[in-house]
Amino acid sequence: MQIITDETKKEIKAHGSHTFPLLVSYEKITAYDSGSFLWHWHPEIEMTLITSGEMLYRINHQEYHVKKGDALFCNANALHAGTMYHEQDCTYISVTFDSRLLSGFEGSLIHRKYVKPLVNDLSLSSFCFNGSAPWHSAITAAIQHIALYDEEKADAYELAILMELYTILETLHLHMHPARKLSTSDMLNYDRIRTILLYVENNYNRELTLHDIAGQIHVCKNECCRIFKSYMHQSLFEFILEFRIEKSIGFLMNGSYSVSEISQLSGFNDSNYFSRAFKKQKGCSPLQYRKKMKAQG
């Protein structure tokens, strides 16, 4: 399984209904291909509560090692990805909602004073609530209550959920402040990162050159590498290699392709190099991985 996105890496899945745009989902990292979900974004805010295990969760330029009891705030439109930690499973609750649920109507006092400043502040793309401050418990409790109300669906449960969302909004407003003001350069570079991710998504199965990628964001090759590593905490070609390996999983689990065919479909010119890279990243050969996954059902 992988998260389905459109050509801009925006997640396609609906998060709730048009009349009540909120979705509570129960996830586990091992349900995703090779225990990780790829970079994507959506216009909704996402709150995540870890219920067991550990995982690595990346939001824009931040990486969080989260454990049972930790919660995460992922702001609207922030790029995010996750992967298992030391091959452990991790279960978590995600509450994804459209911020307009809180606004009442656009232009309202709530929208102008609390909602709009939050979702438009790119310097507040994420936050981890790990119990290091007493107020963190208000966030984790609110997520738990929302999940419970959504599951039970008692009379007026939507109102109960809204009350918890307002608790989250109030807590974020009172306690969560940007570490630094995002510069014009930062905002430009986030747009550049999105462009690079989109280009890799659309072209991973053919030869990718640094010259071509840098040309997509209109900078020189050295600057392209610097920007990507500065914001993504890995080199551009480490990311491309990782991305191609993740994409190869789908072809591998199809069962009808040889390793040589999969390597070509995934953008590798050399099947031996593909097998070595796969083993380094996944700890086993492609065929061993296929056998292991099929044995697990």
Indicate the structural class.
alpha+beta
Tally the structural domains: 2
Overall CATH architecture of the largest domain: Sandwich
Kindly report the CATH topology of the largest domain: Jelly Rolls
CATH level-four homologous superfamily name of the largest domain: Regulatory protein AraC
Question: How much of the polypeptide forms β-strand, as a percent range?
Answer: 15-25%
Low-pLDDT sequence parts:
none
- CATH secondary-structure class of the largest domain: Mainly Beta
Termini gap:
13 Å
Mean pLDDT: 89
Explain what the structure shows.
The chain is an alpha+beta fold. It folds into 2 domains: 22-175, Regulatory protein AraC (Jelly Rolls); 184-295, Homeodomain-like (Arc Repressor Mutant, subunit A), CATH 1.10.10. The chain is 47% helix and 18% strand. Strands 1, 2, 3, 4, 5, 6, 7 and 8 form an 8-stranded antiparallel β-sheet that branches. α3 packs antiparallel against α4 (157-175) and α5 crosses α7 (221-232). The chain is globular and about 60 Å long. The model has no long low-confidence stretch (mean pLDDT 89).
List keywords for this structure.
11 helices, AraC-bd, transcription regulation, 18% strand, 2 domains, single chain, Arc Repressor Mutant, subunit A, Jelly Rolls, DNA-binding, globular, 297 residues, alpha+beta
